[in-house]
Amino acid sequence: MELKDIKKVVQMMKENDLTEFLLEDESCTLQMKRGSDNAPQVIAAPQMVAAPSVAPAPAVSAPAAEAAPAAADEGLVEITSPMVGTFYTAPSPDADAFVAVGAEVTADTVVCIVEAMKVMNEIKADVKGTIKKILVDNASPVQFGQPLFLVDPA
């Protein structure tokens, strides 16, 4: 990643009032956090694990759709966005979606793409189960930690 790309991320964080940013790709991991002094802290390290984390992380400016799941969603596991970007359900506009509601997935199943800084990042389920809900529309912007799918691990 080049310095100009990091500067663009810093600018995007300021414009969107984000306090955290995580970008993982094949060559590196970029994690940035802004403290109370509004000075971004850059932590870059070689990527050690290819799979994004399933654990939800707090999103600073997440939409209201991220509110606590309804009682019907209890027991379902969220697949969250590991980065800020644009959510795509398929590898190209003419291709079929990676998954649909009712699809069986494993930890290695690619469920979507999140495009960040013109890099298409395949997002894996990281959980075995059945897709119960797709929470984001195709080609919509997503935030770091925003739930994308609900999976029934049963």
Automatic annotation (TrEMBL):
The keyword Cell inner membrane does not apply. GO terms for biological process: fatty acid biosynthetic process. Residues 76-152 form the Lipoyl-binding domain. InterPro entries: AcCoA_biotinCC, Biotin_BS, Biotin_Carboxyl_Carrier/Decarb, Biotin_lipoyl, Single_hybrid_motif. Pathway: Lipid metabolism; fatty acid biosynthesis. One of its GO terms (molecular function) is acetyl-CoA carboxylase activity. One of its GO terms (cellular component) is acetyl-CoA carboxylase complex. This protein is a component of the acetyl coenzyme A carboxylase complex; first, biotin carboxylase catalyzes the carboxylation of the carrier protein and then the transcarboxylase transfers the carboxyl group to form malonyl-CoA. This is Biotin carboxyl carrier protein of acetyl-CoA carboxylase.
